[in-house]
From TrEMBL:
Described purpose of this protein according to its UniProt entry: CIPK serine-threonine protein kinases interact with CBL proteins. Binding of a CBL protein to the regulatory NAF domain of CIPK protein lead to the activation of the kinase in a calcium-dependent manner.
Pfam families from the UniProt entry: Pkinase
Alphabetic keyword roster: ATP-binding, Kinase, Nucleotide-binding, Serine/threonine-protein kinase, Transferase
Domain Protein kinase: 12-188
Gene Ontology biological process terms in this record: signal transduction
Xref: PANTHER family: CALCIUM/CALMODULIN-DEPENDENT PROTEIN KINASE KINASE-RELATED, NON-SPECIFIC SERINE_THREONINE PROTEIN KINASE
Keyword Membrane included in the entry's annotation: no
Designated name of the protein: CBL-interacting serine/threonine-protein kinase 15
Sites where the protein binds ATP: 41
Length: 188
């Protein structure tokens, strides 16, 4: 890993790679001053620019700053250099809900709790004119206290983008890449 031990802006030490997508890498990091665990999403400006996703990246930043809720992954700050954008976020140490489900059936009380937390987060977003549009089990994380956290607002839309017909005339859901499929109904 090329960033192991790298200190970002004299504030955060990137410790290990947690995951990687088409346009970003996610690192576990630690705040040097407080010792607090963080997640840092590193986006290559050139990559998102080449595919015309600069506006989408800006929208993700705007959206995440509008949705402060106990069941939504918190964005602490955004940093940038000439070549990269860094999202410094809350670290959900419990990982993806998807991985918990792969291990076996959830107890009914636990599943009910997660469902209630998801509905609370979605209701909060909608009350602020924010539509996630890529809700899937891989975008639902669990923190160290067992609370559900909605993440990845990269495909979100804001109410002001609605047309007069009441629809959001943009694509939504994770694109089908490398044999994966995902579908999210418009407006979620």
């Amino acid at each position: 890993m090329e960033n192991k031990g790298k200190v970002l802006m004299k504030k955060y030490e990137l410790e290990r790679l947690l995951g990687q997508g088409n346009f970003a890498k996610l690192y576990y990091a630690r705040n040097i001053e407080t010792g607090q665990s963080m997640a840092v999403k590193v986006i290559e400006k050139e990559k998102v620019s080449k595919v015309g996703m600069i506006d989408q990246t800006k929208r993700e930043i705007s959206t995440m700053s509008l949705v402060k809720h106990p069941n939504i992954l918190e964005l602490y700050e955004v940093l940038a250099t000439k070549t990269k954008i860094y999202f410094v976020m809350e670290c959900a140490k419990g990982g993806e809900l998807f991985k918990k489900v792969l291990k076996g059936k959830l107890r009914e009380d636990v599943a009910r709790k997660y469902f209630q937390q998801l509905i609370s987060a979605v209701n909060f977003c909608h009350s602020r004119g924010v539509y996630h549009r890529d809700l899937k089990i891989e975008n639902l994380l669990i923190d160290e206290n067992g609370a559900l956290k909605v993440s990845d607002f990269g495909l979100s839309a804001l109410k002001e983008l609605k047309h007069q017909d009441g629809l959001l005339h943009t694509s939504c859901g994770t694109p089908c890449i490398r044999g994966t499929r995902s579908y999210t109904p418009n407006g979620l």
